[in-house]
Amino acid sequence: MSSPVLETHGLRKAFGGNVVLDGVSLAFQPRRLSAIIGPNGAGKTTCFNLLTGFLRPDEGEIRFKGRDISALRPDRRARLGICRSFQILNLFDEYTVLENIRVAVPAMRRRGFDCWTPAGDLAEAEDRAARIIRLIGLAGREHVMAKHMSYGQRRLLEIGVALAGEPEVLLMDEPTSGLGSRPMETLRELVQRLAEGLTIVVIEHDMDFVLSLSQHVAVLHRGTVIAEGPPDAIRDNDEVREAYLGGLRYMRTL
Amino acid sequence: MLRAWTPPPMLALFGVFLVLPAVLPWIGGYTYLGTEVMIWAIFALGYNLLLGYTGLPAFGHGAFFGMAGYFLGMSQKWWTGGLWLPLLIGILGTVACGALVACFVARKRGIYFALLTIAFGVMFWFLVFVLDTWTGGEDGLTGINRLSVTLPGWGAIPLRDNTAFYYFVYAFFVGATVLLWRIVNSPFGQVIRAIKQSEARARAVGYDTALYKWAVFTLSCAFAGLAGGLYTLARYGAFAEPMSLQQSGNVVLMCLIGGGFASFYGPALGVVVFLVLRDVFSTLTDHWMLLYGLLFMGIILFLPEGILGLVQRFRRPVGFHDTRAAETARTADAPPVTVIKPERRP
């Protein structure tokens, strides 16, 4: 087995006396879709914030391609190729779809201190943005302001902005959150296509979505990993069923 | 191509100010008022990079406007002499102080940012009185000269002449406005507006937001330095009063009433309204400050986006940045925009 792109060793994070993560060690293999699941409050989003640098771990370390990145700020990690989407939509609302994507493209980022060239004249950034927009299926809506789009399309744009950073590892925090069944299908197809060439880590509530798409699942419960393995094994794991008993609504899909 | 330099509204603005000295006497104005408007417009447009474009509430910016005058004056009186070099030193000195202050404030947010900028503003204001052997303290630094500008083919033009000085300032006003327009439409401009909309997202896509905030603060100080230098030349002296907290508040008001959040031109319009009304009201009544205050309260309450914000309520933005993109959306075969309420999670 090849070595993991992104791995954590004994991550611990507490807010005040509340220990949210305790000794979490995870490894994400290249070009594989891994999922982190768990009931509400299990520490999934905190784990993401640690991976992307929005929080610092109290203990433990995070390695990206063997290099310790625990102390790097979020923007440094993004430039290394760890890009994320947010659970609560976090878009540039006053920007059009094109502007949202373009500002996240590395070709634009490298020119970030250019105060003279009109932003629209950076052909490389423009091309790259156009490709991303086609990929997420928003072609034809380039010039619609983000705040004027439907929720489903904003969800797609949220992923598009993360993709624009040309990531090696794409972290998606509940991409299906709040989606109806039709946009969910669009999203499923998109994620399936992305998973062919990209290392993806996804946090998810929707079991169907996770178990059908992912190759590797880690289950977080009360800040620790209680199970890890291929989706089929997770489905049949007793401890996982136990952890989810509180939330009966997930039982149907399990 | 021309749009990238000066879009039509800006050309109109330049046109108006070009003929203004000829028109002003007819409508009861005077050339100096036009000069003052252009100087404050440079300051306010540059300040709006911070307030309107990056969303940073810097409340002590008058300090930079004022300190440029002292740098210019000290340089002209005791060091380099001349006109151009002191003007440049005024800008560079202000930029240096701005860059230093920016190091302390760039990582702060919201109310902490505001308070810290106020604190620095007050500190510089006090410094003027502490260093009164150089700055002249209460009396100001007087005896600063508007020397002559030599233009090829025109010979030496003495800037003591008010009309000549008007066009001297006009040249800087045009240059600064065009430069600012290029900045807000550049990649840098896109990044600072992105930071205003969501700093977390800007970091997540790889921008060192603190560095950008430092840069935009420093950049706005360059425009404050230019405007402050010209203001000092206009008044033949550098005084502490533009550095006071109240004057720092005035530039914020100018941006707000004109519509700095909605339009590139908002701050310039705000300056016109602010200075012209000051003149009009003070001739009408002794209690003009009261009228003035009430008017601004009304604008803030009923037009929170400023005067140009009102215009833009009824049409697409005309000029916060280059709207070529927005126009294609209107004309091309873009599907109609639908707003669907977000579906709730089960």
Summarize the structure.
Chain A is α/β, with parallel strands linked by helices and about 250 residues long. Helices cover about 35% and strands about 25% of the residues of chain A.
Key terms:
heterodimer; A: 254 residues; alpha/beta; 2 domains; six-stranded mixed sheet; 10 helices; globular; B: disordered C terminus
Overview of the molecule:
The complex is a heterodimer of chains A (about 250) and B (about 350). Chain A has helices spanning about 45-50, 75-80, 95-100, 105-110, 125-135, 150-165, 180-195, 205-215, 230-235, 240-245; strands at about 5-15, 20-25, 25-30, 35, 60-65, 65-70, 80-85, 170-175, 200-205, 215-220, 225-230. Chain A has about 250 residues and is of the alpha/beta class. Chain A folds into 2 domains: about 1-80 and about 170-180 and about 195-255, Rossmann fold, CATH 3.40.50; about 90-165, no CATH class. In chain A, the strands form 2 sheets. Chain A has a 6-stranded mixed sheet with strand order 7-8-9-4-10-11, sandwiched between helices. The longest helix of chain A has 15 residues, at about 180-195. The model of chain A has no long low-confidence stretch (mean pLDDT about 90). Chain B has a single domain, classed as ABC transporter involved in vitamin B12 uptake, BtuC (Orthogonal Bundle), CATH 1.10.3470. Helix content of chain B is about 70%, strand content about 5%. Chain B has helices spanning about 1-5, 10-25, 30-55, 60-80, 85-105, 110-130, 130-135, 160-185, 185-195, 200-205, 210-235, 245-260, 265-285, 290-300, 305-315, 325-330, and strands spanning about 140, 150, 155-160, 235-240. In chain B, the strands form 2 sheets. Chain B has a two-stranded antiparallel sheet with strand order 1-4. A two-stranded antiparallel ribbon of chain B has the order 2-3. In chain B, helix 4 runs antiparallel to helix 5. The relative contact order of chain B is 0.16. Classes of the chains: A alpha/beta (about 250), B mainly alpha (about 350).
